[in-house]
Write a structure and sequence with these properties.
By secondary structure, the protein is an alpha/beta fold. The chain has helices at 12-29, 41-44, 56-67, 126-135, 148-152, 183-188, 234-247, 250-267, 331-350, and strands at 3-8, 32-37, 73-77, 90-93, 102-106, 120-122, 140-142, 178-182, 197-198, 213-217, 274-281, 292-301, 308-317. It has three domains: 3-95 and 212-247, D-Maltodextrin-Binding Protein, domain 2; 102-198, Periplasmic binding protein-like II (D-Maltodextrin-Binding Protein, domain 2, 3-Layer(aba) Sandwich); 250-358, 2-Layer Sandwich (Double Stranded RNA Binding Domain). The protein has nine helices and 13 strands. Strands 2-1-3-10-4 form a five-stranded mixed beta sheet, sandwiched between helices. It has a five-stranded mixed beta sheet with strand order 7-6-8-5-9. A three-stranded antiparallel beta sheet has the order 11-12-13. The N and C termini lie far apart (56 Å). The structure holds the ligand NCc1[nH]cc(CCC(=O)O)c1CC(=O)O. The ligand NCc1[nH]cc(CCC(=O)O)c1CC(=O)O binds at residues 55, 77, 79-80, 181-182, 184-185, 210-211. Its cofactor is dipyrromethane.
């Protein structure tokens, strides 16, 4: 191994964020890298995401490429990654998170409060539909999908003329007052200009893991099928493993671990729209030694936004770190983060979160 191969979906967003991550890892490791585009079922089919069986379709082809050794690592949007961790794969790095908020991209610079009565809003996300209707029950929600450019082209004035990332042919244009997307994706694409309001998490809690990436690899010690990993490869593999650990952001990993713990616990018994956001808080006058808290806020809503169950809880963190000095993982602090998610999920279930999706 003199370099490493990185699997990515082919969309403009996926290749942009994969390039950023791969370049950082190359710099940290001194190894070259090559991008390998993996076509996923979610990119090929055009039905609604719900019909395709959820967002897992984006991740499974990438995961297969890591497992069979075609690539050394895959870069996923963490929010698209099913919470069950497949055998033979580990999330080796969760880099520092981008803006977690959802973005309103409206015509004429309008904010959510300024949108006219009955305005048409495009989103394919039940989580976004429910939370928007909770504050603006007059809005007309339109189910849309497609890449970022295709979605933005639905709003007059937000068409982006870029031959490298064109809006899909045949998709309607300029027929909506606004669309809602993740700030992180737009910022990474250099399209923050299209955002007319970054929606406060008090109004719109993001999806678990939104704005974060997950870099998935085979466990560092595993044999690669067919790659004949000789002893001579070891130093390069070690350099990559060390770069992945260095690129990992402990605070982000703690946040997303709590958010995914919540999602995992709810998936069993609740199909209703879910928003969740964790953050690390330090007391105002904190010095280096004082303990931080991990705070998790969550909402489960009825799709029409008329019923919203909200819960939050926190745990004290002895330290915001997930590794010991010698680089081995500190399992205790991560399991405390996960447990925080499970606890908040159980509070939501105790209040009837599992009944909200059947009204
Ligand atoms: N489900 C698609 C998806 N997956 C990740 C992002 C944005 C980037 C991120 O949240 O990290 C998006 C687009 C969107 O929701 O607007």
């Amino acid at each position: 191994m003199t370099g490493f191969r990185v699997g990515t979906r082919g969309s403009a967003l996926a290749t942009t964020q994969t390039t950023t991550a791969a370049q950082a890892l190359s710099e940290m490791s001194g190894l070259e890298h090559e991008l390998v585009i993996i076509r996923t079922e979610g990119d090929v089919r055009t039905g609604s995401l719900a019909q395709l069986g959820g967002t897992g379709v984006f991740a499974s082809a990438l995961r297969a490429a890591v497992l069979d050794g075609r690539v050394d690592l895959a870069v996923h949007s963490l929010k698209d990654l099913p919470s069950a961790q497949p055998e033979g794969l580990v999330i080796a790095s969760v880099p520092e998170r981008a803006d977690v908020r959802d973005a309103l991209c409206a015509r004429d610079g309008l904010t959510l409060a300024e949108l006219p009565e009955g305005a048409k809003i495009g989103t394919g996300s039940p989580r976004r539909v429910a939370q928007l209707l909770a504050v603006r029950p007059d809005l007309q929600m339109v189910d849309i999908r497609g890449n970022v450019q295709t979605r933005l082209a639905r709003v007059p004035g937000l068409e982006h003329h870029d031959d490298n990332a064109p809006a899909a042919a045949g998709s309607p244009r300029g027929d909506l007052d606004a669309v809602v997307l993740a700030c992180a994706g737009l910022d990474r694409l250099g399209m923050g200009w299209a955002i007319t309001e970054r929606l406060a998490p008090t109004v719109m809690l993001p999806a678990p893991g939104q704005g974060a990436l997950a870099l998935e690899t085979r466990p560092v010690t595993a044999e690669v099928p067919g790659a004949g990993g000789s002893a001579a490869d070891q130093p390069a593999a070690d350099r990559l493993a060390r770069a992945l650990a260095e690129y990992d952001d402990p605070a982000t990993r703690l946040q997303v671990t709590a958010e995914r713990g919540l999602m995992e616990r709810l998936e069993a018994g609740c199909a209703a729209p879910l928003g969740a956001l964790a953050r690390v808080e330090r007391p105002e006058d904190a010095d280096e030694q004082s303990p931080a808290r991990l705070v998790l806020h969550a909402v489960v809503a009825s799709l029409d936004g008329t019923r919203m169950l909200r819960k939050h809880a926190s745990v004290e963190l002895a330290e915001v770190r997930i590794r010991h000095e010698d680089g081995t993982p500190d399992v205790g602090v991560l399991s405390a983060a996960r447990q925080l998610g499970v606890d908040v999920a159980e509070q939501l279930l105790a209040d009837g979160a599992d009944l909200l999706d059947r009204a």
